[in-house]
Design brief:
Blueprint (H helix, E strand, L loop, with lengths): L1 E9 L3 E3 L9 H11 L3 E5 H7 L11 E4 L11 E3 L2 H10 L4 E4 L3 H7 L5 E7 L7 E2 L8 E9 L9 E8 L1 H5 L1
Parallel strand pairs: 1-6, 1-7, 3-4, 3-6, 4-5
Antiparallel strand pairs: 2-8, 7-10, 9-10
Bound molecules: NADP nicotinamide-adenine-dinucleotide phosphate.
Length: 172
């Protein structure tokens, strides 16, 4: 099963502040929603709860929320109690590809297990309390990049970047 991490991060690796995003970048939200459309989603409990009211986990979306709380329940998605269990549960449900949507704790624990990183790199430093792990360039190779300039509605320059395991790291 393919495991894809999707995240937007600032130049200083900040991804979140006060359980929310530190920026408003409509072009990235649009890209995010388009990319995850119809996909199987995995999210940490905090991120999941922070976005429940929005469009990501709308009715009909398949996915898993990860929590250590044994009695945690969601009316809309499956619940797993570890990263590994979330992958097992997805595989048992015949899923070929999962999108890991964060937040910080989940990225930290799953980056070593992922097959691809789809990262929006926001060209600025932000204050925050949640971070994306360093992308080890000996382990990850940039396979595509699309640089975008700020405009009337998107107040920062940003790049859509895809990383895949570096060939040399696969030979280890
Ligand atoms: N920029 C981006 O792309 C992006 C994407 C997603 C989120 N974010 C931001 O990231 C922040 C949220 O991230 P976060 O790190 O605070 O929380 P999180 O990763 O969304 O969720 C953490 C929770 O996941 C559960 N969990 C974590 N590891 C686990 C494990 N090994 N086994 C079982 N359960 C586990 C625990 O839930 P319980 O407490 O229920 O046990 C834990 O409290 C927000 O600011 C959000 O806006 C940014």
């Amino acid at each position: 099963m393919e495991k894809v991490i999707m995240a937007a991060k600032a130049a200083n690796n900040v991804i979140g502040k006060d359980n929310s995003l530190p920026w408003h970048l409509p072009a990235d939200l649009e890209f995010f929603m388009r990319t995850i459309e119809g996909e199987f989603l995995i999210a940490g409990r905090k991120f999941f709860e922070s976005i429940q009211g929005r469009e990501v986990f709308h009715e009909g979306v398949e996915g898993i929320v990860i929590s250590r709380q044994k009695d945690y329940q969601s009316p809309t998605v499956l619940v797993a109690h570890s990263i590994e269990e979330s992958f097992q549960l997805a595989a048992q449900n015949g899923v070929q590809k999962v999108y890991i949507l964060g937040g910080g704790e989940i990225y930290q624990q799953s980056i070593e297990l992922a097959d691809r990183l789809i990262i929006t790199e926001i060209h600025g430093e932000f204050e925050g309390d949640t971070f994306f792990p360093d992308i080890d360039k000996s382990r990850w190779e940039e396979v595509s990049r699309s640089d975008r300039k700020k405009d009337a509605v998107n107040p920062y320059d940003y790049s859509f970047v895809v990383y895949e395991p570096a060939i040399l790291s696969l030979l280890d």
